[in-house]
Amino acid sequence: MCRRSVEEVAARDGVTRRRARSDVVATEEPLEIRIVRAEELRTGRPQTDAGHRISVTMRTPGADFELAAGFLFGEGLLEHPEDILAIRYCVATERDRMQQYNIVNVFLAPGVAFDAALLQRNFYTTSSCGVCGKASIEAVRGPSRARIRGTATVEVATILSLPAKLREAQQLFERTGGLHAAALFSSEGELLRLREDVGRHNAMDKLVGGSLLAGEAPLSDRIALMSGRLSFELVQKAARAGVPVLAGVSAPSSLAVELAEESGMTLIGFLRENRFNVYAGGERVV
Q1: Within this chain, do residues 272 and 170 fall inside the same structural domain, yes or no?
Q2: What is the pLDDT along the chain (286 residues), one digit of tens a residue?
Q3: Element (H, E) at 53
Q4: Terminal Cα distance for the chain, rounded
């Protein structure tokens, strides 16, 4: 977060009033994600020059290591937390010292294969779009479409209780009004993890990455809740992590519904106040 000077304009009873004040806005900065293989680490090259540049995403700083892990896992470049030897910010040179927290190196464990030819997309993403950089239509559906294994059911009352718990825990949104949130709940409605970011897909990557690094994946008995609409890529990332129930306070897209049906996921939209719509997997809602 950072403070900026703003001019507030308000109209009431035909009278316009203007005043200068400061406001808190959400921070948005680029993050470059790199992969460094174990054999490359032994070459002695400085970290600033090492590795394969995988992605540049516009994100809210914080939980950057989780974001990197979640993104790489979602793209099929990682399978297990043991695949990661370490994650570190880039060691900056004197010339680019100001950028040291905007570049993350993910060091692969010895023996972990990495095929650069699998990167069939331009990995520049913005905070509002995740799949717009796909290099081909065939690459859109991602590395895996295995069906969700989770069979846990969830009660209607539990689902209805989730948005209030999400809002209560969104500390950054409360101050800025400009961040998306992704939250992970138990099947009984207990809030387990929450991440915020200017980008919806970043928030999901942080959520999945945090679970992966904690050794909790697959998330076969969890509920994920998004603060905004449910895009195809959010369903894709949740399915990759094994999430059986994905809910959002807004609408899903047609492709999101289609992928949820193919994956065996329960997809819930328009979760507000005392109602919601079930677009796929209604058998889990009891």
Answers
A1: yes
A2: 555 666 777 888 878 887 776 666 778 899 999 999 877 665 545 455 567 888 899 999 999 999 999 999 998 889 999 999 999 998 665 555 556 689 999 999 998 887 666 665 545 455 555 555 454 445 555 555 567 877 789 999 999 999 999 989 887 555 555 689 999 999 999 999 999 999 999 999 999 999 999 999 899 999 999 998 999 999 999 999 999 999 999 999 999 999 999 999 999 999 998 999 999 999 999 9
A3: strand 52-59
A4: 41
Give the DSSP letter string of 145-162.
-PPP-----B-HHHHHHH
Are 135 and 160 within one domain?
A: no
- Give residue 134's region: left, alpha or beta (phi > 0; psi -120 to 50): beta
How many structural domains does the chain have? 2
Same-domain status, 166 and 135 = no
CB neighbour class for 245 (10 Å; exposed up to 12, middle 13-18, buried from 19) = buried
Q: Is 182 a member of any domain? A: yes
- Same domain (yes/no): 194, 81: no
Per the annotation, the verdict on 129 as an active-site residue is yes
> Which CATH number does the domain housing residue 65 bear?
3.10.20.10
Same domain for 126 and 182?
Answer: no
Domain termination site, one of 108, 139, 170: 139
| Strand pairing class (103-108; 29-36) | parallel
Question: What does pTM read for this prediction?
Answer: 0.84
